[in-house]
Write a structure and sequence with these properties.
heterotrimer, B: 107 residues, mainly alpha, Helix Hairpins, C: 634 residues, two-stranded antiparallel sheet, 74% helix, 3% strand, globular
Chain lengths: 162, 107, 634
């Protein structure tokens, strides 16, 4: 099960990375996010899985696709000049980071130790709500404020004349 | 150990998160379209989410992980709104979504 | 007294400010009324101060107002002093100044910058009064510089021409040389006596006896005399005065004949007790003055421009005054300043009247026969000519005779020089008169249109003419049975703070000397008159007989050319060298442009990383993060 979802996730991400067509890339992103939602289910966290599907693969990707349609720029433009150094250095940096991190993960005894104790407890919404409105109520309000500010900023940026 | 990895141990989740992050990073570094770069950023955020929830699961189903996941979603939504607004604004000025064309700071 | 005393200099300043700021708005008539009015009013106050000072104890009034500057052991009060010398000079400045202002109304009426002219002229009167009435050397120096500035402004009045600004600049720069001397002299005096207030200085000087050899007094007085040379146009700094004739004619009369150029002589008189103590300086002064008197007079013999003749005449007369100072005759020198102010101002104003009648023609050889056309100008100028040549009974006779007598007592050779100069003076003055007023008109067109000037111009002529005749009787020399009363009148000033008054030596054949000089002067005057009465032919034939001499005189002994070659060219070369090497290469190149080029190079290198592309920056960030991770986890 884990392998399937992990493969869906990574392949979706890779397909998005490789895709020339922006709409195809967006759809691949949806696939990737669905895989992530599956992973969340496996982690005994249906709340997060539901949110992932609703917010990410629902709202955000729809927003991105909407903008793609709006701007009518389906294809990536040909580069005005080739940026080979940027390309190869970028790939190299990503590869080094990935390889280094994989090595660190695989050789870490701490991770194995934490992973062994596994009392699987299903996360339920009530617990989340309680924690959110008791311990994190200030952060919650701040997040609300942030969303408001983002909304105002987006409107201010895009509206032609205020 | 390998079988544990394939069946979903903590290391397996972290590994998936890392690869997701690297792919997102590569997207941002190598692709020029602002929209694709934007998707790469979303990928990286999701990688963080995966790692966060995996750790929470193996700490006995900690609620904090999910709460922080909620906050990350909120920030990601803000980022999506403002970032896409910026893309639209740039497109209005330059009629392109190529991030390399937005190099006016240089001049 | 206190307030009205300050009104004397401040009224012209007020007039200058008013005219300078509002001159274009209030119209010519208002400008004329204000310009003449403030000077006339100042004259009234000066007259009052003159009589108040005369009846005061010590014949001296001082009006202090405040401490001007106080630093270290230097304390300079701001104050005006009225003693016989300064109050008489103030009367001359305001009185003749008022007349010339009035004359200017007529002379300048058609000019574009009428208001500008009067603003400058009023400002000049203010600075001149500062110079004359100032109670300290710094205040005197402020006036000294101020009149130099006004002189510069007024010489360059016709600034749209080529020669006038150049002449103004020449006057200014030449005066700078002298001003440096004044500053050095002032510093030397302060270093020695610890004061710059004139009264204190003279009191401290009072108990000293004449200096033997060359000491600090000789040095300081010599430096001050350098300043006097600049201002009063003595050899070798006289070169600016003839060029200064580029200014309007009333300016030549007021500044470059009657008042400003006598400032040097006035300063020496002001510090007379000090100069008395420096025999070396007095010798230098006497010889410089005598040589200038003769030298300038010979140049005046052949000049064709009516104003140039008068300019060299002024230089020559200033030479007489300076010679008198050198001979120890401070009163005689100042007496000549006083009489000269009248008749030379009159000559210039008369020349201005002639020039205006001839439609701005200044060449003597184009005039002629104007006697009947300009009767008032003719008669007044005739009186002035008699005065300057020393015709018995006229003012110049008394003052010049006293100077020649003192020169004889100093050294007989000085007397010979002086008499030779006087002969030249008579000659060129009668040449000027004959060419202008006698003979046939040489420019018929201008002659036909010549007419007498308006009353604003003729009234000052008449007043000055009357003055030229009578002011000499203020100082009849003792040789002619007089008391030289002006000398007695000035004594409180000239011997201020002196414990023992220097008695002039007397004796010698005074009457004989006077007769010889007068007869010679009359003879040469007649010679000049007869040579030029009927035209220029005789003169030209004579010039042809002595071509070399004529050319040297006509070119003013090539002094300007010599200065150009000996001083100006090397200085210019040095300047060019400093400019090309010092400034362009060292300062601009190595000092400024090189660091700028380095900074730009560094900036260009760094700009390679400043691509403006967000991806490149992200990559940089990632690489940086990788580097940090590497450091922590290696």
């Amino acid at each position: 099960m884990f392998l399937i979802f992990a493969l869906i996730t990574l392949l979706g991400a890779l397909a998005m990375f490789r895709s020339r067509n922006l709409i195809v890339a967006g759809l691949c992103l949806v696939l990737c996010f669905l895989g992530v939602a599956g992973l969340f289910l496996l982690l005994a966290n249906p709340v997060a899985a539901a949110l992932q599907i609703i917010v990410y693969s629902g709202a955000i990707v729809v927003l991105v696709l909407f903008v793609i349609m709006l701007l009518n720029s389906h294809e990536e433009e040909a580069a005005a000049q080739p940026h080979r150094i940027q390309r190869w250095l970028g790939a190299l940096a990503a590869a080094v980071l990935g390889a280094g991190a994989c090595k660190a993960v695989l050789s870490s005894p701490g991770l194995v130790r934490i992973g062994q104790e596994s009392p699987a407890r299903v996360m339920d919404l009530q617990q989340v709500g309680t924690s959110l409105f008791q311990q994190h109520v200030v952060a919650f309000e701040a997040a609300g404020l942030l969303l408001l500010a983002a909304m105002v900023a987006a409107v201010a940026l895009v509206k032609k004349e205020l | 150990m390998n079988s544990a990895l394939l069946q979903g141990s903590l290391q397996g989740y972290i590994l998936v998160a890392l690869l997701l992050f690297v792919i997102g990073l590569a997207t941002v570094l190598i692709r020029r379209s602002l929209l694709v770069q934007f998707m790469g950023i979303e990928l990286m955020l999701n990688a963080a989410n995966v790692a966060l929830l995996a750790f929470a699961r193996y700490r006995g189903g900690d609620v904090q992980g999910t709460v922080f996941y909620l906050f990350i979603i909120a920030v990601a939504a803000c980022e999506a709104a403002v970032g896409l607004a910026l893309v639209v604004a740039l497109y209005r000025h330059r009629h392109t979504t190529d991030s390399d064309s937005a190099d006016a700071l240089r001049r | 007294m206190h307030t009205t005393a300050w009104l004397i200099p401040l009224l012209p300043l007020f007039g200058a400010a008013l005219i300078g700021l509002l001159g274009r708005k209030i119209g010519k008539t208002a400008v004329a009324v204000i310009g003449v009015g403030v000077v006339a009013l100042a004259f009234c106050f000066a007259l009052r101060a003159f009589f108040l000072a005369g009846s005061a104890p010590d014949h001296r009034l001082e009006s202090l107002s405040f401490t001007w500057m106080s630093t270290g052991n230097l304390s300079v009060p701001m104050g005006l002093v009225f003693d016989p010398l300064s109050s008489l000079m103030a009367l001359v400045v305001t009185g003749i100044g008022a007349l010339i202002h009035l004359y200017s109304v007529g002379y300048m009426w058609e000019e574009e910058g009428f208001a500008r002219y009067f603003a400058y002229l009023n400002l000049f009167i203010f600075f001149m009064l500062c110079l004359v009435l100032g109670n300290s050397l710094p205040l005197l120096f402020v006036g000294w510089e101020g009149v130099g500035l006004c002189s510069y402004l007024l010489i360059g009045y016709y600034f749209e021409t080529d020669y006038a600004p150049a002449a103004g600049l020449k006057a200014f720069l030449t005066n700078r040389v002298g001003d440096l001397g004044v500053i050095i002299g002032m510093m030397a005096l302060f270093a020695h006596f610890n004061t710059l207030t004139i009264a204190e200085l003279l009191t401290k000087v009072g108990h000293l006896s004449p200096e033997v050899g060359f000491g600090v007094l000789s040095f300081a007085t010599l430096m001050l005399f350098v300043g006097a040379c600049g201002k009063s146009a003595q050899i070798p700094l006289y070169i600016w005065l003839p060029d200064a004739m580029a200014g309007p004619t009333p300016v030549s009369a007021l500044i470059h004949a009657a008042t400003m150029v006598t400032a040097g002589i006035f300063m020496v008189c002001r510090l007379a007790p000090l100069f008395q103590l420096a025999p070396i300086t007095l010798n230098v002064i006497a010889w410089v003055g005598g040589l200038t008197a003769l030298f300038a007079a010979t140049i005046g013999l052949v000049q064709r421009d009516i104003k140039k003749v008068l300019a060299y005449s002024t230089v020559s007369q200033l030479g007489y005054m300076v010679m008198a100072l050198g001979a120890g005759g401070f009163a005689a020198g100042f007496f000549h300043v006083f009489t000269h102010a009248w008749f030379k101002a009159l000559l210039f104003l008369g020349a201005g009247s002639v020039i205006m009648a001839m439609h701005h023609e200044q060449d003597l050889f184009k005039m002629g026969g104007l006697r009947s056309k300009l009767p008032i100008t003719f008669w007044t100028m005739l009186l002035a000519t008699l005065a300057i040549m020393g015709f018995p009974g006229f003012s110049g006779f008394f003052s010049k005779d006293e100077i020649l007598y003192l020169a004889y007592l100093k050294h007989p050779a000085l007397w010979v020089i002086g008499v030779a100069g006087a002969c030249c003076t008579s000659f060129y003055m009668w040449r000027l008169m004959a060419l202008t007023f006698w003979g046939e008109p040489r420019d018929h067109h201008a002659y036909e249109h010549a007419h007498e000037s308006p009353w604003t111009m003729t009234l000052p002529l008449v007043v000055l003419a009357a003055g030229s005749v009578v002011v000499g009787y203020l100082g009849i020399p003792e040789a002619f049975g007089g008391h030289f009363s002006i000398g007695r009148f000035l004594e409180p000033s000239l011997a201020y703070g002196q414990l023992h008054v220097h008695e002039g030596h007397h004796g010698g054949p005074a009457i004989l000397l006077a007769c010889v000089s007068t007869i010679l002067g009359l003879g040469f005057g007649l010679f000049g008159f007869l040579s030029y009465r009927s035209g220029t032919a005789l003169a030209e034939s004579r010039a042809a007989r002595f071509p070399l001499l004529h050319r040297i005189l006509l070119n003013k002994y090539y002094v300007d050319e010599g200065i150009e070659r000996v001083i100006l060219s090397p200085v210019r070369g040095l300047g060019r060298l400093l400019w090309q090497v010092g400034d362009v290469i060292i300062v601009d190149g190595i000092g400024v442009n090189l660091p700028a080029a380095l900074a730009r190079l560094a900036g260009d290198l760094l700009a390679l990383f400043q691509t403006g592309r967000v991806r490149n920056y992200t990559l940089g960030m990632v690489l940086g993060a990788l580097a940090i991770l590497w450091i922590f986890f290696k």
